């Protein structure tokens, strides 16, 4: 796999989003034939990178490609960092190796061929455009101690993005992060172990940095990314900061539970005091959202009575 990406990454570094680079120059710099250049360019397109090709001019990226600085990433994280240009799923990798991991170990990839969101939904993962990662954490009090954890991770992501000047952020129960009322980031937490004993957590997260137009067509909901910012955060620095924030918040969660995070959640809750529909197949419940409780449930007020619900998926009636 390393050899597979060696030439491709050399080609990517020669490409620019402001000017064309000739295929002949790429071939000379990389030490391959013009035919090989064409083949690599075609393969890069299959990985979700939009590249313009004009005869007589060469190749140009449709937009800047925010890649990780692999060396800075690995050296800047005090825990083990497993970095891949391509992987099926960062969550799946950590789950497969959970017996060998320590809390804080992280897996990062530029591309996921089988990225997943909640309820088995596909997470569109074009090469180099976004942040894809999974953090390993061990809880000794069993699975029940992890209740509400997805809300903590969402708060961690919001806290980190705020330090980079990202505005217009919002939270959707139980684990989605929005920007300007469109989905910016998501979380997928998977557990293994016994309900009352030591529990292995794999915390997957994805943050949209710069969505390619062709990949956007595959997404069936309103989305947002960070490309519209005056200064887009450096992806490596963003990940390093997020890793530190996650570890701090997870340690706090183990001691204090979710209670410490409720004020931040309420500050960014997109649905607080709004009428929502909580879909719990085969039925749904309509009420006014009153935030979250200490167990991570969403509180709905119906006919003056407040009730907390753990399962289901929020669907807002009307528009934000």
TrEMBL record:
GO molecular function terms noted in the UniProt entry: ligase activity
Domain (BPL/LPL catalytic) ranges: 66-250
PROSITE patterns (UniProt xref): BPL_LPL_CATALYTIC
Record-linked SUPFAM superfamilies: C-terminal domain of transcriptional repressors (SSF50037), Class II aaRS and biotin synthetases (SSF55681), Winged helix' DNA-binding domain (SSF46785)
Binding site for biotin: 89-91, 112, 116-118, 183
Residue ranges the UniProt entry marks as DNA-binding: 23-42
Catalytic activity: biotin + L-lysyl-[protein] + ATP = N(6)-biotinyl-L-lysyl-[protein] + AMP + diphosphate + H(+)
Enzyme Commission number: 6.3.4.15
Domain of life: Bacteria
Entries under InterPro entries matching the protein: aa-tRNA-synth_II/BPL/LPL, Bifunct_BirA, Biotin_CoA_COase_ligase, BPL_C, BPL_LPL_catalytic, HTH_11, Transcriptional_repressor_C, WH-like_DNA-bd_sf
Protein keywords: ATP-binding, Biotin, DNA-binding, Ligase, Nucleotide-binding, Repressor, Transcription, Transcription regulation
Family the UniProt entry places it in: Belongs to the biotin--protein ligase family.
Function: Acts both as a biotin--[acetyl-CoA-carboxylase] ligase and a biotin-operon repressor. In the presence of ATP, BirA activates biotin to form the BirA-biotinyl-5'-adenylate (BirA-bio-5'-AMP or holoBirA) complex. HoloBirA can either transfer the biotinyl moiety to the biotin carboxyl carrier protein (BCCP) subunit of acetyl-CoA carboxylase, or bind to the biotin operator site and inhibit transcription of the operon.
HAMAP family: Bifunct_BirA
Record protein name field: Bifunctional ligase/repressor BirA
